Amino acid sequence: MVSMDEAYALLSQEAKRVHLGSVKQPLQQCLHCVATESIRTTFPHPPFRASVKDGYAVCSAEGAGEFSLGGSSLAGSVPSREREGSHVIWRVNTGGMVPDWADAVVQVEDTEVVSSTADGEEVKVRVLTAVTPGQDIRPVGCDMPANTEVVAAGSFLTAAEIGIAASVGAHELEVYQKPTVAVFSTGDELVDSHDASQAPRLGSIIDSNKPMLLAALRELRFHEVGLVEDMGVVRDSMEHTKAKIMESLSAADVVVSSGGVSMGDVDHIKNAILELGGTVHFGRVNMKPGKPTTFATFYPKSSTGRCKFFFGLPGNPVSALVCFHLFVAPFLRQLCRLPTELLTDPVVEATLLDESIRLDGERPEYRRCIVRRRNTGASFGV
């Protein structure tokens, strides 16, 4: 039996053996992936002098006073380079390009319209407050000079990284490939949830572990088509168990099963792994629940093959989900090359309110609890 720390060390060691490769994908398909290379901007941001506010582009040396309106610079347009005489200003919108001849923007709140056309277009505008050179103008490259690294290699790509990559013209990125995962349940008593349209026959139960684990994988952002395979339910025989393991290994990089890992007469997972040539790294963990959790590897028989991984989780639904989050999830995140700080779930400090709860004195124990938000009272089962 191994300790939790020993189990984590073994998982990390095996995950480091495998490089799943990388793939270049359209930008919108890269969410929640890890970038293999840095992304740099090839041009400055902004690429032109841009107005910070809605107002008027002016020459600051001319101070306050009455001005004629020479034109407008809307966002996305290019204003004239020439100015038609002194005391002429241009209307400019937030984000609009400031004309070359202007060195400041006066906000619209510091102006008043003196005269306008019948259609309401300004003809003359009074500037009420003098401005200083550069006021309310974003200089070229003030956000990002050319060749600035905007996404570092190894970054986990969230919506923010996707957005900034798009802003510098990236339309596809190279990211680490995610592993494929196959899931099956074991047990003669199980009725696959796909086939359960009514109450099961006496002595049978509807399989809840497989739907639960498939949903947990989606929560883990394994939701892309082809990443997860539903391998069904396997009967309690050595022949069927070995066949299902082989089928699952051929379909995925990582196989996750539930049930069949304890000490019962029909618990065949561990022996089936060994008979198929797999290496069991641990089959008992000093923890509660989840003591019979099993982790094994199937090393390739040729230099072109790829190592495959097997997690045998307990059949009890609570144990299965606990062990998924404690072992499978961090392992998959490491295979995805996530940064170290994202490999495990956040740790929440909690206060035990019910002192009558007795914890196991010899094994680390993982209990279900309810977390409530202080401001809303909303409850979350964890």
Number of helices: 6
Residue runs with pLDDT of under 50 for 5 or more positions: none
* N→C terminal distance: 26 Å
What is the number of domains? 3
- Main beta sheet: 6 strands, mixed
The percentage helix is 10-25%
Strand order of the largest sheet: 7-4-6-5-9-8
Secondary-structure arrangement, i.e. CATH architecture of the largest domain:
3-Layer(aba) Sandwich
Mean pLDDT: 93
| CATH homologous superfamily assignment of the largest domain | MoaB/Mog-like domain
How big is the Rg? Answer: 32 Å
For the secondary structure, the number of strands is: 22
Q: Name the beta content range.
A: 25-35%
Family: In the C-terminal section; belongs to the MoeA family. Belongs to the MoeA family.
Cofactor: Mg(2+)
Keywords: Magnesium, Metal-binding, Molybdenum, Molybdenum cofactor biosynthesis, Transferase
Domain MoaB/Mog: 182-334
Helix and strand topology:
Elements: H1 4-15, E1 22-26, E2 39-40, E3 50-51, E4 55-58, E5 65-73, E6 88-92, E7 104-107, E8 111-116, E9 122-127, E10 137-138, E11 149-151, H2 159-167, E12 172-176, E13 181-186, E14 190-191, E15 205-206, H3 209-219, E16 228-234, H4 238-251, E17 254-258, H5 269-275, E18 279-282, E19 294-298, E20 308-313, H6 317-335, E21 370-372, E22 379-381
Parallel strand pairs: 5-6, 13-16, 13-17, 14-15, 17-20
Antiparallel strand pairs: 1-12, 2-11, 3-10, 4-6, 4-7, 5-9, 8-9, 18-19, 19-20, 21-22
Helix pairs in contact: 1-6, 3-6, 4-5
Cofactor: Mg(2+)
InterPro entries: MoaB/Mog-like_dom_sf, MoaB/Mog_dom, MoCF_biosynth_CS, MoeA-like, MoeA_linker/N, MoeA_linker/N_sf
Pfam family, one: MoeA_N
